[in-house]
Write a structure and sequence with these properties.
GO terms for molecular function: efflux transmembrane transporter activity. Keywords: Coiled coil, Signal. One of its GO terms (cellular component) is efflux pump complex. This is Efflux transporter periplasmic adaptor subunit. Pfam families: HH_MFP_RND (PF25876), RND-MFP_C (PF25967). By secondary structure, this protein is an alpha+beta fold. The protein has 4 domains: 88 residues, conserved putative lor/sdh protein from methanococcus maripaludis s2 fold; 88 residues, Efflux pump adaptor protein, beta barrel domain (Elongation Factor Tu (Ef-tu), domain 3), CATH 2.40.30.170; 65 residues, OB fold (Dihydrolipoamide Acetyltransferase, E2P); 74 residues, Helix Hairpins. The protein is 28% helix and 41% strand. The strands form 4 sheets. Strands 1, 16, 17, 18, 21 and 22 form a 6-stranded mixed β-sheet that branches. It has a 6-stranded antiparallel barrel with strand order 2-11-14-13-12-15. A hairpin with a 2-residue loop joins strand 16 and strand 17. Helix 2 runs antiparallel to helix 3. The longest helix has 37 residues. It is rod-shaped and about 145 Å long. The relative contact order is 0.19.
């Protein structure tokens, strides 16, 4: 009996020893890991805008008057030198006739003064007149010449006034806006027609201020038509408004297009796309994410002890395949990418392999 009791006691002690050994040294948990690397990334930005003329000019009469004819229509194509509108020109034509008559009278006075001067010059040479008469004839000729010059200048001004009653296109283009019609009285400088010249095309966008401050220097912009994305053109930023819109608080940005297709007509709606440098980023597999304190977190592996610890991270972007981390990880750190749901802080792990 004593021998049997001793054997039972030995077996019980052996079993307790094995259980204590098992509890003291559990087997490491198998996991897959990835090493953190930073890379330079670019973020695409898209904006909706419109096509405008690179050079648009408002045409107006140089003088005031009553519009006699204005046949311009929005969308009409015009040529350089084409008459767009006319003013009633009776007063200007009368002024022209008056200037012509004044010039004819001055030329007659000049002819008479020259003949008198020639006679006085001949008589003075022969000694039949006095120096005073000769000087008076000389002065009369100079006065008559000055009157002719003044009359010619007035005639040129009258011709200009008559020409100002016709409004002509200074370059080929398309009419984008029209002003007063026939019968209306207009002032000098009042817009009669607005022409988009055919020199170039701009894609115009309204852009927030923060994107202008953080944007790249001289970025290349890809512009596509909204209704047909296959129609595209390349361009670069040509002008940025100096002041934000008081309504939208955005800045107007004009992108000069290089060889835009014909389909990109004035007023067409387009989408502009530009790549901006987002700086160094960290991409990890989405399977590495877990939660701690209701915030995204990852498990960090300590290579020296093969144990894990959990750490919160800031997620910039997330999809089914990968997540972009903005803060919380450094280059060279090892994270767990598979088996994250069964870990606890300080647990030993055994690396099965690395996730690419």
């Amino acid at each position: 009996m004593l021998a049997l009791a001793a054997a039972a006691t030995s077996l019980l002690l052996a079993a307790c020893g094995r259980e204590a050994e098992t509890n003291a040294a559990p087997s490491p948990r198998p996991v897959r890991t990835a090493t953190i690397e930073k890379r330079e990334s670019s973020t695409p930005l898209t904006f909706t805008g419109r096509i405008e003329a690179e050079d648009e000019v408002s045409l107006a009469f140089r003088i005031s008057g009553r519009v006699h004819e204005n046949a311009t229509k929005i969308g009409d194509r015009v040529k350089a030198g084409q008459v767009l509108a006319r003013l009633e020109s009776q007063n200007e034509l009368n002024t022209l006739r008056q200037a012509q008559a004044a010039l004819a009278a001055a030329q007659g006075q000049l002819t008479q003064a020259r003949n008198h001067f020639d006679r006085q010059e001949t008589l003075l040479a022969q000694g039949w007149t006095t120096r005073a008469n000769y000087d008076a004839a000389t002065q009369a000729q100079q006065t008559a010449q000055s009157q002719v010059d003044a009359a010619e200048a007035q005639l040129n001004s009258a011709h200009d006034l008559v020409s100002f009653t016709e409004l002509m296109a200074d370059a080929p283009g398309v009419i984008t806006a029209t002003g007063p019609g026939a019968g209306e009285v207009v002032q000098a400088g009042q817009m009669i027609a607005k022409i988009a010249r055919q020199d170039g095309r701009d894609a115009v966008f309204d852009v927030p201020a923060q994107l202008i401050r953080s944007g790249s220097v001289d970025p290349k912009v890809t512009v596509n038509l909204v209704d047909d994305s296959k129609i595209a053109a390349q361009g670069r930023i040509r002008e940025v408004a100096a002041q934000a819109s008081p309504v939208t608080r955005t800045f107007e940005v004009k992108v000069g297009l290089t060889d835009p297709p014909v389909a990109m007509r004035l007023g067409a709606t387009v989408v502009g796309r530009v790549e901006t440098n987002a700086g160094p980023t960290i991409d990890i597999p989405s399977t590495a994410l877990t939660k701690m304190n209701q915030q995204p977190a990852v498990w960090i592996v300590d290579p020296s002890t093969s144990t894990v610890s959990i750490r919160n991270v800031d997620v910039l972007r997330f999809d089914e395949a990968q997540a972009t981390i903005s803060q919380g990880l450094d280059t060279g750190e090892v994270i767990v990418t598979a088996g994250v749901q069964t870990l606890h802080p300080g647990q030993k792990v055994r690396v099965l392999g690395s996730t690419p």
